[in-house]
Write a structure and sequence with these properties.
This protein is of the alpha/beta class and 418 residues long. The protein folds into two domains: 173 residues, Uncharacterised protein family UPF0261, NN domain (Rossmann fold, 3-Layer(aba) Sandwich); 217 residues, 3-Layer(aba) Sandwich (Rossmann fold). 40% of the residues lie in helices and 17% in strands. It is built from 14 helices and 14 strands. The strands form three sheets. A six-stranded parallel β-sheet has the order 7-6-8-9-13-14, with helices on both faces. Strands 2-1-3-4-5 form a five-stranded parallel β-sheet, with helices on both faces. Strand 4, helix 6 and strand 5 form a beta-alpha-beta unit. The chain starts with 15 loop residues before the first strand and ends with a helix. This is Tm-1-like ATP-binding domain-containing protein. InterPro entries: Tobamovirus_resist_UPF0261, UPF0261, UPF0261_C, UPF0261_N. It comes from Thalassotalea psychrophila.
Length: 418
């Protein structure tokens, strides 16, 4: 029979871990996980997101309520059962319920478990939760490419090794480990706290700009500003811009734009279509440097080889399987055209800074991809294509030179404090 003895009230002072799963097929495992969490001195709060099957364990929020929060009813979902429709409704309802619990400071972590569908649904819910709220997914899918499940959120993926289908001595230990991990994260959970009244600076970075980024972090700190650095390889840039939307980041030193180059030339660091538009739309102060567009990151099928397409380019290797061809003059124009198009949203508080002696360590005078002719083409393209609403500062430096980084930091702070 379906057990409906749920208790949605959380009154204990103990910290609470949510268990989110299809309790019809994962009930035995979730009940064991609950007991493990409780044995560690924490509350366990079960949310059932099953649809078709029968739930035989006690839960805190039953599937009927999840469906209602998701904009449907269990009766409607069961008229013509559809995995896709059921998942959409239950995910939507779970997101709403979880964010209410988090906003009211009722829960401290979430753990979910599942196979292909369960991982997809559990992670969709977690992707909609705030950054830094502890999220653990115990999954049969966790040893493969988990990028679609993790997205740009801080989800911890734990490989279940065996299928999640009944208890045995091995899987009991896996669930016990999961309980320990979730409770540990709940116990150590700290709210994000920043200096009052001081904007948080988001910095995009690439490995070929790291020395400049380290210097920028120091300079911002000396002036009383904290910063968060993001690896500009697609997912990192998306996370930075999501934090702008969330109000966490309120000023930007966009130092690495190699993901724009890769988006145009099928590189491994490719940005999405929204990249470099968010700060402008929000009106955030930003200093932009075309750092890292002097090369593309190409993932090789065979280590240390040269793709036919790039045999006439200067090239190097970031590592044995990441091939980095130099972007020539024509490619620089294409990349700058795209950058300018995306910056059309930036009407105020935006400065574009161009180092004329190379936009990364690769194109410095002693770098593997030194090519002053292509750099000169970039300079001309910037002057021609950059939107007139954006101030341009050119400096006779490499992007990592101390003088250039100091000027970038000073410029951004002047935009912040204007």
């Amino acid at each position: 029979m379906n057990i409906r003895k749920g208790n949605k009230k959380i009154t204990s002072s103990q910290k609470t871990v949510v268990i989110l799963a299809t309790m019809d097929t994962k009930g035995v495992e979730c009940d064991f996980l609950r007991k493990e969490i409780q044995s560690l001195g924490f509350n366990a709060f079960l949310i059932d997101i099953s649809v078709v099957g029968v739930t035989n364990i006690e839960v805190n929020i039953y599937k009927d309520e999840v469906a209602l929060e998701g904009g449907s009813s269990m009766a409607a979902l069961l008229e013509h059962p559809s995995r896709q429709e059921g998942s959409e409704v239950m995910v939507k309802g779970s997101i709403k319920l979880m964010n209410q619990l988090i906003a009211n400071q009722k829960v401290d972590a979430i753990v979910s478990l599942g196979g292909t569908q369960g991982t997809n649904n559990g992670c969709k819910v977690m992707q909609a939760l705030p950054y830094a709220f502890p999220k653990l997914m115990v999954s049969t899918m966790a040893s493969g490419d988990t990028s679609a499940f993790v997205g740009i959120k801080d989800i911890t993926m734990m490989f279940s090794v065996s299928d999640i289908l009944g208890l045995n001595p091995f899987f009991r230990r896996i669930l016990s480990n999961a309980a320990g991990a979730a409770c540990g994260m709940a116990e150590s959970y700290q709210k994000i706290k920043f200096a009052e009244g001081k904007p948080i600076v988001g910095i995009s970075n690439l490995g070929v700009l790291t020395q400049g980024t380290v210097k920028a972090i120091e300079l911002f700190k000396q002036r009383g500003y904290e910063s968060i650095v993001f690896h500009a390889i697609g997912s990192g840039s998306r996370a930075m811009e999501q934090m702008m939307k969330d109000g966490i980041i309120t000023a930007v030193f966009d130092y690495g734009l190699g993901d724009i180059a890769d988006a145009l030339y099928d590189g491994v660091r490719a940005a999405d279509v929204e990249r470099l538009t968010v700060a402008g739309k929000l009106g955030l102060p930003q200093v932009i440097v075309p750092g890292g567009i002097d090369h593309i990151g190409i993932l090789l099928d065979e280590p240390n080889t040269v793709p036919e397409k790039y045999k006439n380019h200067q090239y190097s290797y970031h590592n044995p399987v990441i091939f980095v061809p130099r972007t020539n003059g024509d490619e620089m124009i294409v990349i700058m055209t795209e950058i300018s198009k995306r910056l059309a949203h930036s009407k105020t508080k935006t400065v574009f800074m161009l180092p004329t002696k190379g936009v990364s360590s690769y194109s410095a005078a002693d770098g593997d991809l030194f090519d002053p002719k292509s750099d000169h083409v970039l300079q001309l393209a910037v002057k021609k294509l950059l939107p007139k609403t954006i101030e341009l500062i050119e400096m006779d430096n490499n992007a990592e030179d101390t003088a250039f980084v100091e000027k970038a930091v000073d410029t951004l702070i002047s935009l912040i404090e204007a």
